[in-house]
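Box 3.1 A note on notation
Throughout this textbook, protein chains are presented in two layers. The first layer is the amino acid sequence; the second is a token string describing backbone geometry. Keep the layers aligned when reading.
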Amino acid sequence: MNARTEPAEAGPGAPARPQLVRELLLVAGLFLVYKFGRQLATGHTAEAFRNAHRVWDWERALRLPDEGSVQSLLLHGDTLIHTANTYYAVVHFPATAAFLVWLYLRRPAHYVRARRVLAALTGAALVLHLVFPLAPPRMLGATGLIDTARVFGPSVYGPPRTDELSNQFAAMPSLHFGWALTVAVGLVVATRSRWRWLWLLHPLLTLLVIVGTANHYWLDVIVATALLGLALAVLRPPRHAVPRRRPELRRRTAERREPVGAGR
């Protein structure tokens, strides 16, 4: 994206940018609800492991690929698995925050919908975390997978019993993947560059990382995708968010279509 191919929305028809202070408070509030909601789901260890065995059996019944095949690819070298662990640890929140900031500054019409979609997706995920606590595959011995973050580093989690910052039994749905897919879809829709489809590499890399590091099952990703699809279907874009052809472009198109000899 650059100033030549991605001009900022401007002019009398452009939507008003939401007030910055209000948006900062809204996003901060959503983050606090996200953290508080994850804490409410702690303390369900036995149920989380029972659900993990169920999910593992469901995946085998559905003949989904074995998560171990992805992990084996990452374990080809210490650098590769360390990079995957780092991607899992540091990209999730900054990438989503950068996405919202860029939309707010450059595409305010798309920003409002993106913020609502992220809020709806996160809220639905927190409800599912509460009603269906799930231990990740790295904790389930039946998977034969290893906790790559603990073995190779870096790790964002401590021992589950003493970890007061996160709920490690909230594997389904994967908000890592759900947010990454939201970012990619939002940028594809909000930009016009011919290279915009490369944004889909972000959720693709996230998918390989969260499965290969044994932090999520395939079903976690499928459920996250379904919830995002539902949020996008319910939260329709406002009319002014639909890109319109600029006046000069319409004028040039009309001139090209003018019959030869017209006006003579």
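Residues 82 and 153 are 6 Å apart (CA to CA). Residues 1-5, 241-246 have pLDDT under 50 and may be disordered.
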